[in-house]
Amino acid sequence: MTATLSILTTYTSDGARAPYEDTVGKDGLLRYKFQGNPKHYTNSSLREAFNRKVPLIWFYGVNQGLYLPFFPVWIVAVEAEHSQVAVALDEAQRHLSSVEGPPSEIERRYSERIVRQRLHQPVFRQRVIQAYDASCAMCRLRHRALLDAAHIIPDSKPEGIPAVSNGLALCKIHHAAFDQNILGIRPDYRIEVRADILAETDGPMLKHGIQEMHNVSLTLPRRRVDRPNPDLLEERYHQFRAAG
């Protein structure tokens, strides 16, 4: 039992400074910081896990006292000069040459995609759904299996950060309608349905599910820090208006 079994990243609200800055390196691999003195037993057990190449569980905080587990992960490099270790989220990342030298562009992009898909997106989803109390911000549907964490600004753009303030808990139909610019959200948190959609005549889903959302106010998270960023909403609203 000399090697660590798990690592943990505590929950930190958006905008607050985390006690340990676990980040993604230039090679696309995650970095997990040592805790305090590099010679502390917890950090020695990280080195032992690297030497023995054993899998770990990474518990990632998504709310106070609530963690999302990722297993297996591996320590693939010890970077004592920076008081940190490099962590791989899948088997392919374990064997990238980037941990021993400069990564190729393909390797870096692959690692960044893996981190986004396997860590940032699941954490983002859980944090957003928790912030909205497992309820669609538009129609109040409370079936968690039918809810998505929608980005206001897509994560493919630099400003599309995986923060709760860049997210909305939406049911799948309203998420799709938002992505397709069938409806938009004004910076004052009111929903706007595109004019041509309002003029359509169709079945009850269009009438009650989409058209009746026009000018309805979003249900917002209780904590102000978790509410949609008005600047991001305004940017996204301009795209909605242009599409219409």
Question: Can you walk through the features of this model?
Answer:
A hairpin with a 2-residue loop joins strand 4 (56-63) and strand 5. It is built from seven helices and ten strands. It has two domains: 6-129, no CATH class; 138-243, no CATH class. The mean pLDDT is 90. The chain has a six-stranded mixed beta sheet. It has 244 residues and is an alpha+beta fold. One of its GO terms (molecular function) is endonuclease activity. InterPro entries: HNH_nuc.
Briefly summarize what is shown.
This protein has 244 residues and is of the alpha+beta class.
Features:
31% helix; 7 helices; 6-stranded mixed β-sheet; elongated; 10 strands; alpha+beta; 244 residues
**For this entry, what is the oligomeric state of its chains?**
single chain
* Uncertain regions spanning at least 5 consecutive residues: none
Quickly give the structural class. Answer: alpha+beta
Outline type:
elongated
Tally of alpha and pi helices: 7
Going across the biggest sheet, name each strand in turn.
Answer: 1-4-5-6-3-2
State the domain count. Answer: 2
Mean pLDDT: 90
